[in-house]
């Protein structure tokens, strides 16, 4: 039995065998050299640390201050320009919607940021995702809701607007966003105050009628809503509105009233309308009503008024079960204010 190899000879022999076996004997022994310790920074005295901390906070505070002052100045300038004493503003028509023709290609860039900041983009998404079956979007404009539709749920889509220019922007957007959905979409350049033809696939009307930010720009909002009631399916049809108008607060309504004419002159929309009153006067049945942004953003879900044919059917059903109520009682309108808050 031979002597076992020592630890050191065992550990050095293996790698040397492979790379340079002939140098094995002549390699100098490894030498241990301690590493230099990392340089240490002396801790600053408490006063110096406090000064550094305050320097670090100064820049963000300065930026925040400049931003607040900037927003304040910008809002004041807008307010001054919108409330300027211009006799021409007294003659702005109730229908200033021709402005959309000129602004069509810059419309989106003008509203993108403010809609995102006020949560309107999120509400558009929420509303559009409710659509299914045969959809009509009224006053569809530049197609700000297009991206949010789930086309797999849509049997047909009808996009309507009286402005050919706004609709042209929307059409381009639809082609980019839903290239697969080209056969069952109809583009209608017409006023929503005129009769609206349902798609050939659904002669009794639309399952969903969506309208966003449009009651502000028509001179006859009640008539427009009533017309939507005519084209929604009498049974199961829904009309969804996302609108802007008067607030819960008198001071804000004062600002809206003072600036409305100048805003309408520039943008084609009267932003001080009482959406609740318009909805009430339309006679449509309110299913849901919610308000956001100090009450200026209105989410409204409506049902069409039952048609005479349907009223007769309901009356028949009521007498079949021995009910004493006539058709008027059975289809009584829910007051819109019952859904308040
Ligand atoms: C403020 S823009 C809103 C566009 C789009 N709905 C949106 O949410 O961005 C108002 C739109 O309503 C359209 N409009 C106004 N009155 C209309 C009417 N009587 N019939 C159809 N479209 C109308 C305008 O042409 C314009 O495109």
From TrEMBL:
Top-rank lineage group of the source organism: Eukaryota
InterPro entries assigned: Methyltransf_Superfamily (IPR050508), SAM-dependent_MTases_sf (IPR029063)
The protein's name in its UniProt record: S-adenosyl-L-methionine-dependent methyltransferase
Naturally occurring in which organism (per UniProt): Mytilinidion resinicola
Region annotation (Disordered) ranges: 1-47
GO terms (BP aspect): methylation
Bias kind Low complexity: ranges: 1-18
Spans traversing the lipid bilayer: 61-82
Biased composition (Pro residues): 35-47
Keyword Secreted in annotation: no
GO terms, molecular function: methyltransferase activity
One matching Pfam family: Methyltransf_23
Keywords of the record: Membrane, Methyltransferase, Transferase, Transmembrane, Transmembrane helix
